[in-house]
Amino acid sequence: MRRPTWLLAVAVLLVVFAAGAIGCGVTKSSYSCENAECKVKLSGKGADAELDTLNLKIVLAGSEDGMATLQLSRLASGPDETVQLAQGETAEALGTRITLERVEGKEVTFRTSPG
User: Which of 19, 23, 42, 112 could pair with 47 in a Cys bridge, judged by C-beta atoms 3.0 to 4.6 Å apart?
Assistant: First the structure.
């Protein structure tokens, strides 16, 4: 017995969609800024926040064992800088001070302010 072509097409699409969903990580970001100070929470590798008040984009490059790697760049253009911080540490990059407050699995929380 021959199956309808549309049924086969739907099955193929479902397999392709499921394979893509398995390989894709979920990212989340949230932040709040008051004056020039921002509190940022990023979850999942590749999550980012664009902080207009600091003219800065911050991307979570990774987190593991209480450490986080953040990539910073200016919104308009310019060089990127990467910083790696342990929980509780403060660093300065692109004229911005960053304090890593918490690392929990793939979620990081930090504060930023002008350096």
Answer: 42
Q: Which amino acid is at 80?
A: D
Q: 20 falls in which pLDDT band (50, 70, 90)?
A: very low
Q: Three-class SS string for the chain?
A: CCCCHHHHHHHHHHHHHHHHHHHCCCCEEEEEEECCEEEEEEECCCCEEEEHHHCEEEEEEEEECCEEEEEEEECCCCCCEEEEEECCCEEEECCEEEEEEEEECCEEEEEEEEC
Long-range residue pairs from 25-30, CB within 8 A, at least 24 positions apart, any chain: 27/60
Count of beta carbons in the 10 Å neighbourhood of residue 59: 20
95: its two tokens: 């004229």
